[in-house]
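Blackboard transcription, Thursday session:
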Amino acid sequence: MTAGIAIFIGALYYSNVLTALPTDSIEKEASINEVTITSTVGSKRKVAGKGRTASIEEHLLQLNNVAMVKRGAYAWEPVVNNMSTERLSTTIDGMKIFYACTDKMDPVTSYVESGNLQRVRLDSGLDGNPQATGNIGGSIDLKLRKSGFDAAPQEFNLTTGYEANGHLQVYGADAAFSSQTFYANFGAFYRDADNYRAGGHQDVPFSKFHKVNSFLNLGFRPAPNHIVEGTVIFDRATDVGYPALNMDVSDATGLITSLSYRREQLAGLFYRWETKVYYNHITHNMDDSTRPDVIIHMDMPGKSSTAGLYSLLEGSRGNHQYQLNFDCYYNTLFADMTMYVEGAKPMYMLTWPDVGTFNSGLSLSDNIRLSDTHSIHLSAKGSWQQQRINSDEGYHALEIFFPGVERSKRTFMGRVSVSYAWQNNGWRLAAGTGYGNRAPSVTESFGYFLNNAFDRYDYIGNPHLKNESAVELNTSASWQNDVIDTRLEVNAFLFHNYIIGTPDNRLSAMTIGAPGVKVYQNLKHAQIVNTAFTFSVTPLSWLRWDNKVSYSYGKESTGAHLPLIAPFTYLTALKLFHQNWEGELGGELVGKQSNYSNKYGESLTPGYAVWHISAGYQFNIHTVVANIHVGVDNLFDRYYSTYSDWNHIPQKGRNIYVNLSVKL
Amino acid sequence: MEKRVFTRISAIVFLLFSGFALTACGGSDDPVVPINIPTEDDECCNAEETFLAYTFLHNGYLKEIESLRDTIDEKYALSVYSRGGKLHAGYNDVFFALTKISNQGFVRNFSVTEISPVMTMTEKGMKHSTPTATESSLYDETFPAVQHAWISFVMSSSSMGYWELGYKATTQNKTVAHTGSVIEVSANATGQEWIKSFKYQDVNYYLSLVNPNDFQTGINTIQAYVSQQNAEKAKPWPLADQEFTIEIIPTMPDMGNHSSPDNVALTKQPSGIYEGKLNLTMTGLWDIHLVVKDKEGNIVAGGENNDSGYSNIYWSVIL
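(Written on the board underneath:)
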């Protein structure tokens, strides 16, 4: 995979020392059994301080180009290349899944647990994974951890962790059984946290959460090269606090299921063929009953269900390595809101008018190795989508704002990307470009009086929106030898018909205290530019110093800055490795967000510096492998919030953690 | 209200299949009443018209107000219907049907005139009427057996006073004058107000909102009548001579006076009713603030705002 399009694969699990590393080969990528990542990969090993007790979001943050929008301690929203959910594709083992909360309190990454996953694949920009649609900023595929055939006949893992700040407790247990024709692995995770404290011992109310997760993977190989696999994940979070919002969540429940059939070692054009059918269902209930001073109590439930299939062919011939994928899915999103006023009839509206989305697409990708030094990567996808408002009441409500609007919308979306890389003698130069578009999300097309706690406006979707399109340009240069590894990368996204909410002064806000109503509109142009420079030096075999500087810029056609664009950031970490010991001392130095977007409700976020320290030790007693990690985040108990913390909610103050995982 | 429960075609089909021997059910609490299909009779409706009239009057929404029943020449029985057999403050639809006593057939041609609701204020010892249609008209071309009128009560019955309703019914040159029988007029549900008044050039005008219970989330056709007080207060109050424009701004008092865009002012239609467009973004309590203007665009009422920042004349409806 070419550097310019940067596929980073984070190893999240199943390793002696947990690591995250970039991997370069699609051959490796293609076979699930081969992606058992071990502790040492050259000198590139990287410490993940919290190990397997880290949340998915904490793992994701180790990937390049990733940031998180935080509305509390739980369910952070991934941002890639300074673009969030609408411009990303998130899939679980290629399965489409859509969040059920109109306020984005439940990014789909919150419905899985680190223990469910083997790794995360992130494709930056328009070069998405085969199942990705609408990915302008990037695509995330969460790869489930399956024990696979012919693995250890049995294996048991126990994990426990404790964080002092917020009394976060993590307990996990799983078991795996494997034979030549059958495998099964299953387990359960439990997380429980009280309110955390920001720097300076300030309690952050409504920041607790509880979560249980259980999973089961089954594999059956009735004949060589014929593989049937099934997955069930059940995930339920309860009493989740969102300090940045006016409401909490009483429960968020996800059920994720899939069944797949795979042929391996095929002769001819393709060597592998996998077909998967899947279904997932999410219910999400917001709750404001524990909040004080609520003028009007509200019930805001949401439901999302998705059924789909994909069929992926992979092959190679000569210097080509290619994939062909067909996928389709049908998703329904329903959300409503009931507001209770004492002594009066409750008020009711549909906030997502039971929108059905059918999408069907075909994707192609090809890696061409022209020579040892030159390679080209191509990928393309086209998909057709139809959406329909299934609720009469929701349709009639939307008609007020868009008289005569059609109930159904059809659109065609596509993306193409091409990149070229040259590598020789430690040097690697890459450049790529792409063009693609995305259909507006259900919120952007049909959302109805969705209050955004960030700018406090009520938002109304616009069924007349055009697709948003973007041209991506990226380039990178890197050089490495045994001691130094350095890399400079730049990517730019030039948008046309950029979708964003703009105030409509004719309209009157529904939420008490909201300054007005915004309607999603297409802006003529917008640009996002991201640059990053990394410099790693390994002067001694037991010492490495990692540095990363990044800067981003976002602007739209009226000249205003785009919201949620990362300020100047410098990350540094000193890492030590000695026998079974590892240690890290690091810091995050972030500049003032001077290019904040006043127009879109942002206010200035001051700069800050936070430091962390951690140590890990691995010991083996007979066949038992145990890992223990201790560390301190925010060493100096700094009170701060990042540019992407919703409503400037403060981040955790000093946090001492310890965790232990044991493999039997 | 369902204007027609069945279409003409489905009615015919139904009749064919049921071989003209029907037993139809009305509302859930109505007893089962057999429809009487008359033999050939010029005065009476044919089978299809009878079926449509019957299904309309027994559609579950309407019930007879039995105290208003009367007979003409001992040959015809007149029944008066309203929604649920009840009357309330503000606008009420009233329906009339005449049956021939000898064969129970619905009579085709009849009229109801001089509809006169009168309130007697017991303590003050005075009487007054209220905005009303004084004559009935055909409700629907497809079934000539049902006549329609409306009455908009300015107040409910109470210990302060009682309402009586009189009318005159005529068919085949025979007439009955039904003298006022006492009727019960209930108050609007708490928080709702469907009739409003204003004074302009020494005349009291009344704005009667038509059937707000039919409003739904979305774009609604809003209808109203503008009536004026009769110089003789106890005589029925007719439609206003003046023509106005009624501008509307709906707001939700419980939601910080949230409003909706693109509402269309009510203007007078050839039939005499005022009609406009009302946009309601959700269910709940809505205040429909009114600004009444004359033909030249001068504000004649609703020019002053109350605490909400909108006109102090408003209908209140709950949906």
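Lecturer's comment: Chain B has two helices and 24 strands.
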